[in-house]
């Protein structure tokens, strides 16, 4: 334990109490001085500078610390003035005076010197910020802060923490704080009572602490920790299983989304559409385009992209159908050839017109992060949305194919075109509409995928093979088949992955498909009966 | 003999004639004219042509199954690559202790990934006869096992296409794995000599080119022999009405298996000749997209006309060579447009153009060379 | 109802129909006869628009020039077609097969008219079976039923009795007569079986090698004609 | 001696690698343009010969041959990925060409005709690990990579290195994924678990190309922040970041020899020039671009020194050539055809740039043969006469047969 | 694998010991023997406890309402459909249920389908060539040559079916009736021991019908023929023994007169006037 640390601790205790109780504070050390201290700090003295700022109670302290954490605290080379960078894109940056917050306008990047931070410091900073947050009004912020503190407690904050613990009115927050303290106690002091506090916790840090206790010399501690761990283990297994299932479904939903449009164009219409992937890509680029049009509103842009992506891809689909596919009725191999050509053109088009580089699609706030079920199980939100979206799209399509005339007509047209026309079905219109529908759905897939993966010229290529695989595995012409196939393959893959590794898992899935098709030569949901056998 | 039959056919004679003329012409122009002469064919061009011929042989193999047997194989790249790997392993072993690390047995990539000994499946590849046999046997055996499974269970149509694709995809992933012992993503490269000839000498290049030409000729005759035989007609029958063929007493699955295996072996040979000429074999040859591309060559050339496959393969790859050099930024547009235009305006592929011309000249062929009818309606 | 004049049709190089004339009067059943391969089916396809005609005219209901109408439109004009070989949609259920015709009816009806099921009860029984699974005869009934869903003014039947059990053949004949009598339907029938033709048709036309060789009331169909054009 | 000096550019403009390589093609073209504006070289103009090997490895060899045999270029700048280089290598050696390879790679190679201006493992991986160990206090390691040779070799080297440093075997987790892997849920969850053992954990990522975006996304969504488990990547540069929503990634790391954010005038000038050349205010620069910048200048320098573009002369002249790099120092061409480079560690910022958090005090010379692999420990490369050997075994005191010599022997 | 299970069944003569390729054994009477055969599709019983015996050289007509299961019965005999229960024997030696379609076909059971199915891409000539009774294994097929006697035989059949003029045209362009004839021709080429003919005269004129009738009766005696037909005139002209199927089982059996006077048959099939 170093002397400076001890001193800080004292300082901290002294200064924190008033912050917690009353808002009475005076601006003692001037802002400039504090910042100066931070800017000039050696790696060893950074923490001290940070805590000084935190303890200062300066109204802009938080802003400084956050700016510092985000690499936005800079010094003007010539004047030595400390500024906060507001916009750091491009060659000229907008800056504001750190102390006053006054906007100073643009400044060339060349003239700024960043005040360096690294991860070790950032960790300290996080602790400091969490400590500040412990005194926030909102109990949720406090709980979040308390959770952040788990595993980050050191001597410096232990006492204030315990002080805070006594004052904390909300049980949940208190609980967290107790655990945070207990982790410290188990790890540093080998306290057996603390082990009991951690017994039920699923938090990884709590488990880590218990694990370290198991390795300890003290037999009593060891036994207690072992017992505590045992109770957690079972719960963890369940969570683990739930998590894997979720992973599987979510991968499956991606497969379903990618394939479902193809289930229409290929499965129902019989067009081997190699450009399907590029239609997905168009959907994804539409999302990007929308976000460019509506800067700062990624969420709104994303929602608007749903109809827009559908429309763009559907229009592209119509163009493809009119210009190429209509001439290739009943010649699947030629549709493969022509759409392969189309796919090359579309890829290169995007490369030339937009950029060969990937584009950034921002994930809106409400889609990032995870839904925390408990400390060991949290479900990523973006994938949850995608899963829901996939199911919605599927339901919608099902409705169209089953409940509207289009569904009946397209099946009639593909089974016997001449006869369907003899029955008065406008085959050309049906072709256009169906292809547009399939393409549009591919566009929707693109919108969703933009939230999971790269938006770049190769996007389509990555999904085309999988899509065909899913459609065929499910049984050509059967939408249910596509859904079940996608979810099954996804789940199998994720179940295998933990023990086989990603590469082998994929290989096994492929081999599984090959073998499965031997057993059911017409996919999961085959078309049965005399007609299918030919 | 069924193999002699195609030799009496005008179209085959014409094909072989053109092929051999081309071989002789290239050889002569390469050897006789000095470098710098406008008509001189450089070693670079010779190798390039050799590569096209490999692709042509591969396309012929694919056409045999997809055009005549109705099995749209989207995984023939796998057989090609396996043939290539067999050859690559031979060439690797030929390096001997001249590798970077000087290990007499282990190839370089094994040394630096710390392999202690040669995996068993590398044994024997130091012997040319063994390796060359493997060029035929490995793809053949894979096709046999795979085909036996698939045809026995009557997997047809797109289902078959997709599992061939799954096959090549799985193999690609497997060969990417370094643990497999085939050099992972880098594959096998840095070859030195073949049968004692230095691979970097122009004479060897020319030799390989000629060998490829001959292989193509043989492959073409073999396929043509099958196609013009009664078995060829049975294949077409299987393609169009599999069940009906069974009721006539043909074991459809065996016919399919036979043709599939022959085709796989031809693809293997093509791969084996390809590797020493391009100097590398790596798992991307297994990629499904490559296999799809092969089908595209065939379709572009004209399906179910073996020579169409040859034309398609050479044309597309020539176009690629030219376009990637002349308009590196926009060549995909050109290639894509080529595919689209051919399908829309030449429904029978390029061979359709030629056939139209031929139709007007000769007509009323006898039944013995009748399989052209399959082409007429395909 | 239908006047065909100087119709010529080619399959590629081969000239199949030669200057063919045919008159199908309203409210009657006209039976086209001829040996195998003389072009009967081809003629029906020309009327439906499935094959292109080289020249000649097909006039429907007095003034509509059918050769200028797209295929789909002919169904909407009120021509029902029961093709040779049935051509049902194999993977649609029986009911769906029937429903394909609903959109071409002018009245926007959404359900299958009960009458169809009355005429062919087996269709009701097999409503949910795939069309392709039906037996040959059942399919034939389905094909006729499907054409009737359109409520056509002109019904074209290409060998409707083929593969159907005798009592149903008779029944089909009766249905035809009933429709003619009740709805004023016009029927164009292709039939090889003399007894059937004699019993249910009003008029006949004989085609040989793509030309119309004879035409007249069914009672005029003499043994001499039969020997000349219908025997091999 | 008439006509322009031809400079071959062998970078994929289509296919999977186009994402990375297109910018390099532009860089070379820009450098040529600038050189020409300054009067060319030896009084002659430079001319770029651009071909597209389309991310297809055999095509790389073919195109290299086209450049050397047909176009008769004097030098080639090109390739990205080891396999493309390995494919081209025999061709360049056979036809005695010059190839400047601008990307970090696994080492274990030294060719007479190839100049490696990207980082060898000792110029990137090892310093990065040192940094994590010493400055961040990392004790537990996840080595995650795409399953191909570069990650395999790098991880092998790192594993040996870490164990030498006393890291226990169970504190190292190695994970490989296929190219373009897009579903990282399980792996990220594993990493999370692995990192919850109470020891500070970091991920050393050799994940390649497109797979990074979904990987980082998943990291962010599963709530792994850089303060919990930092990720240090060797293949993620500014260009890759420009396709990622960097918000959730702030604080993750990358190790390179150059960052766009480097605070030197040379760099700012280069950036200005690049933005002007591309006409895109948002255009970014990255490490391989700097490598080309250095390589190009070295070649120019060497040609000047040799007063000819003749390959053998340039090859001899270039060893020892020193040119300024963009990070305020100098890069020298070493006898083993690798160059000296500083190693920088940068943190991802929300603007898609890296903030430099650490750098080596001086430049590090690239090592062709790793000291941490048993097979190559004793090998060195030195292309100066009289040794002229790419894999000299210092223990045995003899030169292993090298490809270059082979070619020469054949030619004789 | 299958050998292993066979070895376990010691009470039977091993399959591989009985010569399967031996000619059909008809010493004990019938050439075709169906017993208690039942098939259902999704719960619908298409064939229901069917018993049927065909004697060697017999010409048998089978009639019955649409959907009675006639075609399905043929599917079972030729191995296309596997019955749920029952046994089907060809002669007294061959259990057809254990054989595949090609095996059954090469044993000598030929079939004409209800919907004419010919190889549309092949010419008429080639269609017949493929049907010809020769060695149909892969290698013999590969090396097969067109011998003069084969050509003659095909010529003969072409004559019989009246498609001589069209012999080099692809079968796809034939009219419906022509296809019917071609299929009959293919059946003749096969020279089977047992012919299963499903609705041969659909789409034929009266005269052609007569010719077909002649053809079939001329075959009987040497070969056994089973004809399914709805045309009563035709059936009457060839029939010796008639079996009536109804709802998957035999409703009546006897001479044409017996059958056509059977009130049940009249009710479900013939109708009052027939
Ligand atoms: N698509 C086609 N291409 C070329 N010729 C054809 C085509 N379809 C039919 N034909 C020929 O045209 C002629 C008339 O055929 P069509 O089908 O009209 O005869 P049909 O009178 O209906 O005979 P059937 O009574 O047998 O049904 C036949 O000789 C047939 O071979
Ligand atoms: N695969 C199948 N799935 C469902 N039902 C089937 C299937 N195959 C046949 N059926 C039914 O079995 C019954 C018998 O059919 P089958 O074709 O054998 O009749 P059939 O006696 O040949 O009639 P037809 O004289 O009309 O040809 C029919 O009702 C048919 O719908
Ligand atoms: Mg007809
Ligand atoms: Mg039937």
From TrEMBL, chain A:
Cleaved signal peptide residues: 1-24
Keywords: Amino-acid transport, Cell membrane, Membrane, Signal, Transmembrane, Transmembrane helix, Transport
Gene3D superfamilies attached to this UniProt entry: Leucine-rich Repeat Variant
Gene Ontology CC, one term: plasma membrane
Pfam families associated with the record: BPD_transp_2 (PF02653)
UniProt record, GO biological process: amino acid transport
GO molecular function: transmembrane transporter activity
Cell compartments where the protein resides: Cell inner membrane
Segments passing through the bilayer: 245-272, 300-320, 332-350, 384-401, 468-492, 498-517
CDD domains: TM_PBP1_LivH_like
InterPro entries per UniProt: ABC_transp_permease, ABC_UrtB_bac, ARM-like, BCAA_transport_permease
Record's bilayer topology term: Multi-pass membrane protein
Origin: domain of life: Bacteria
Family statement drawn from the similarity comment of this UniProt entry: Belongs to the binding-protein-dependent transport system permease family. LivHM subfamily.
NCBIfam families (alphabetical): urea_trans_UrtB
Protein name: Amino acid/amide ABC transporter membrane protein 1, HAAT family
Species the sequence originates in: Marinobacter daqiaonensis
Automatic annotation (TrEMBL), chain B:
Predominant cellular place of this UniProt entry's protein: membrane
A Pfam family recorded for this sequence: BPD_transp_2
Database matches in InterPro entries: ABC_transp_permease, ABC_transptr_urea_perm_UrtC, LivM-like
Gene source species: Marinobacter daqiaonensis
Lineage, uppermost ranks: Bacteria, Pseudomonadati, Pseudomonadota, Gammaproteobacteria, Pseudomonadales
Domain of life per record: Bacteria
Region (Disordered): 358-378
Coiled coil feature spans: none
GO terms, molecular function: branched-chain amino acid transmembrane transporter activity
Membrane topology recorded in Swiss-Prot or TrEMBL: Multi-pass membrane protein
Keyword vocabulary terms for this entry: Cell membrane, Membrane, Transmembrane, Transmembrane helix
PANTHER family xref list: HIGH-AFFINITY BRANCHED-CHAIN AMINO ACID TRANSPORT SYSTEM PERMEASE, SLR1201 PROTEIN
Compartments it resides in: Cell inner membrane
Residue spans crossing the bilayer: 12-33, 39-62, 69-92, 127-151, 158-176, 206-223, 255-274, 294-318, 330-350
Official protein name in the record: Amino acid/amide ABC transporter membrane protein 2, HAAT family
Database matches in CDD domains: TM_PBP1_LivM_like
GO cellular component terms listed in the entry, alphabetical order: plasma membrane
From TrEMBL, chain C:
Gene Ontology molecular functions: ATP binding; ATP hydrolysis activity; branched-chain amino acid transmembrane transporter activity
Keyword set, alphabetical order: Amino-acid transport, ATP-binding, Nucleotide-binding, Transport
Taxonomic superkingdom: Bacteria
Pfam family, any one: ABC_tran
Domain ABC transporter: 2-232
Transmembrane portions of the chain: none
GO biological process: L-amino acid transport
PANTHER family, sorted: HIGH-AFFINITY BRANCHED-CHAIN AMINO ACID TRANSPORT ATP-BINDING PROTEIN, HIGH-AFFINITY BRANCHED-CHAIN AMINO ACID TRANSPORT ATP-BINDING PROTEIN LIVF
NCBIfam families: urea_trans_UrtE
Assigned protein family: Belongs to the ABC transporter superfamily.
Protein name: Amino acid/amide ABC transporter ATP-binding protein 2, HAAT family
Species of origin: Marinobacter daqiaonensis
UniProtKB/TrEMBL annotation, chain E:
Organism expressing this protein natively: Marinobacter daqiaonensis
One CC-aspect GO term: plasma membrane
Origin superkingdom: Bacteria
Limits of the ABC transporter domain: 32-272
PANTHER family: CONSERVED COMPONENT OF ABC TRANSPORTER FOR NATURAL AMINO ACIDS-RELATED (PTHR45772), HIGH-AFFINITY BRANCHED-CHAIN AMINO ACID TRANSPORT ATP-BINDING PROTEIN (PTHR45772:SF8)
GO molecular function terms attached to this record: ATP binding; ATP hydrolysis activity
Keywords on record: ATP-binding, Nucleotide-binding, Transport
Pfam family, one: BCA_ABC_TP_C
CDD domains from the UniProt entry: ABC_Mj1267_LivG_branched
Keyword Transport among record annotations: yes
Protein known as: Urea transport system ATP-binding protein
PROSITE patterns (alphabetical): ABC_TRANSPORTER_2
